[in-house]
Amino acid sequence: MKKLTPLLATLLLLFTHQLLAQGKAVISGKITNPLDDYVALVTYANPLIPDEKVTEVELDGDSFRIEVPVQEATVAELLHGDEVVQVYLEPGYDLKLTVNGGKFFKTIKYNGKGANENNYLAYATARFDEEQDYQVLPDNIKLKAGEFTEFLDYRRADQLKSLDKYAAKYTLSEKFRSFILTEIEFGYAKDKLNYHPLREQALQLKLTKPEASFYTFLEQLDLQRPQGHLSPAYVSFLQDYTFYYAQQAGSSKESEQFYKACYDVAGQKLQGAALMMAQAQVLKQSIQFGHLKYTQQLLKDFIARNPDQALNTYLKQLSNANKSLAPGSMAPDFTAVDTAGNTVALSNFKGKLIYLNFWKSDCGLCLMELPHLQQLIGKLNAEKVVFVNVALDETPEKWRQLVEQKQLQGEQLYAGDQASDLMQRYNLKDVPAYFLVDENGQLANLKASHPNHPETIRDLLNYLELHQASLK
After folding, report:
1. What are the C-alpha distances in Å from 189 to residues 48, 154, 218, 238?
2. For residues 230 and 182, is the Cβ–Cβ distance under 8 A?
3. pLDDT at 465
4. Is residue 387 scored above 50 in pLDDT?
5. pTM of the predicted model, to two decimals?
6. Is the peptide bond preceding residue 232 cis, with omega within 30 degrees of 0?
């Protein structure tokens, strides 16, 4: 057997090393003034599946090294203490960073393969995401439509100028440039598309919608971006896009078929990866908030067409987990006691639309919304709506005292020992939480509008009108 020459052996070893490096990325570095004993990297296999992989390493003094498999361009998160930094990775990247733990964004600096991309990402994040003047909230959303567009145009122009200036000095990968350009374009599009509803919410007013010309930018968007799946702005925009056009076509969020309308809009306006991504997001929303009947139709259609088996499996599991608490399913029945000590069941109110409120008397937000809730009850007392308020307090004394002192209207009930069971059965993460239960005892909305929202009365009246129309 012939022996390899030293040169050939070296070349073979180098080739083998490069081949192995293509399937991974390495991040190492030093942290002066560490905030913690650990550094972690969070990666996501699919932007539509919220399963994250956390790779955590312990600091060796002030140094660390993390190695993760990377098969294609991806955006990860580097965590240390309470600091979180986006990191852009491609196969073969070997990043070396230095940072001061007490001044993370201001001091982070990369060297090695992938340094140009990540130095720009850190700079752009600090300048455009952390700088208050570039944010929509809390002040820029108050601008009138024309002024708001000028603000967005200025921000986008500044972002593009910044990228071009940096790229003139440092080489950037085409995939990274595509990712950043997608973030810029769809950050602009998302903020402009959501301007009107967000402005109404911020100002707590019913406002006239901008003229049709305000939305012509939607027709000029390239929705088939090759690196779109990497961009949070793009992924989020696709869902807002389908919601907008469904509403433009006359579909209301209170309609049982709203998410089906959004799903159909995506099928009419999108294609390829953008279509599947948009419909998957609509389906996730429908599973969590949509009517059970239509959700099952959408799920069957999507799985039949989508080749991504991991995503299909996730959606089926999400659907199975939400079937028992979905619009169209029976609202979990329960009993509670009123201020007189009488036992009252939710099913006692069958035949009326139920605005169901879970709250606590020591909850600050609950107390802030009490006056609005009382106004809502007063305005709708002649309608076929009953307001059932269930207190989840640990003891009844404070609840009963508050109800009597404030002379709270509506059905005032105390859950007592059933509080923890109700939180589990209604999947309550926090209070206040509002639900709509229809006249047949079925859940109509798992996320009903709060009583202080300007659209709540309209939503309730619209529901009654739509439901009565459907019975004719």
Report:
1. 20, 14, 8, 10
2. yes
3. 78
4. yes
5. 0.78
6. no
What whole-number distance in Å separates Cα of residue 30 and Cα of residue 212?
A: 53
Residues in the chain: 472
Token output for 456: 């709540």
Model pLDDT, residue 468: 55
Amino acid 55 reads T
Cβ atoms of residues 355 and 343 within 8 Å = no
- Structure-token pair, residue 436: 């709509």
Supply 195's token pair.
Answer: 């301007």
Residue 358: C-alpha distances to residues 17, 193, 389, 415, 445 (Å): 60, 33, 6, 10, 14
Residues in contact with 377: Cβ distance below 8 Å, sequence separation at least 6, in sequence order: 387, 409, 410
User: Cα(248)–Cα(262) distance, rounded to whole angstroms?
Assistant: 11
298 Cβ neighbours under 8 A, 6+ residues apart: 259, 260, 263, 279, 282, 283, 286
User: Rounded distance, CA 73 to CA 90, Å?
Assistant: 4
Tokens at residue 359, please? 């709250």
**Distance from C-alpha of 211 to C-alpha of 69, rounded to nearest angstrom:** 49
Cis peptide before 307 (omega within 30 of 0): no
Residues 259, 94: Cα–Cα separation, whole Å: 44
Please tell me whether residue 320 adopts helix, strand or coil conformation.
helix
- 167-199 pLDDT, tens digit per residue, is 999 999 999 999 999 999 999 999 999 999 999
Cα separation, 107 vs 98, in Å, equals: 8
Helices (H), 89-222: 104-107, 115-124, 145-169, 174-193, 195-203
The one-character DSSP state at 346 is G
CB contact set of 66 (below 8 Å; sequence gap of 6+):
26, 27, 28, 39, 40, 41, 55, 57
Beta-carbon contacts of 348 under 8 Å, excluding residues fewer than 6 positions away, are none
Contacts 24+ apart (CB under 8 A), 199-202: 199/141, 199/142, 200/454, 201/453, 202/137, 202/138, 202/141, 202/142
Q: How far is it between the farthest Cα atoms of the chain?
A: 98
C-alpha pair distances (Å), 53 with each of 68, 229, 275, 317, 388:
10, 18, 26, 19, 42
Phi/psi of residue 124, each to 5°?
-65, -35
